[in-house]
Amino acid sequence: MDYRQRLREIREDRDLTQAEVGKLIQKSQQGYNHIETGRAELKIDDLITLCKFYNLSADYVIGLSNRPSHLK
């Protein structure tokens, strides 16, 4: 699975808006939308922040694993 699709699914499963997640990684709603739609790349620092926020492993968030492993 493409990591952009996974990011959207995780966000929607938690009933969060793009603006809310964007604020978390210090981006506008449009800036975060660009990540989900492929117009911008997800920076590693933002990935780390999202993994901690969602309490999910990076492997799951970026689509390398289909099992949602939680951080310890």
Commentary on this structure:
- The protein has 72 residues and is mainly alpha-helical.
- It contains 5 helices and no strands.
- It has a single domain, classed as 434 Repressor (Amino-terminal Domain) (Orthogonal Bundle), CATH 1.10.260.
- Helix 2 crosses helix 3.
Put the structure in a nutshell:
The protein is mostly helical. The protein is 58% helix and 0% strand. The chain has a single domain (3-57), classed as lambda repressor-like DNA-binding domains (434 Repressor (Amino-terminal Domain), Orthogonal Bundle).
Which shape, going by the Cα principal axes? globular
The proportion of residues forming helix, as a percent range, comes to 55-70%
**The CATH fourth-level homologous superfamily:** lambda repressor-like DNA-binding domains
Total domains, how many? 1
> Which series of helices and strands comes N to C?
HHHHH
CATH topology: 434 Repressor (Amino-terminal Domain)
Key traits:
0% strand; mainly alpha; 434 Repressor (Amino-terminal Domain)
Secondary-structure map:
Elements: H1 3-13, H2 18-24, H3 29-37, H4 44-54, H5 58-61
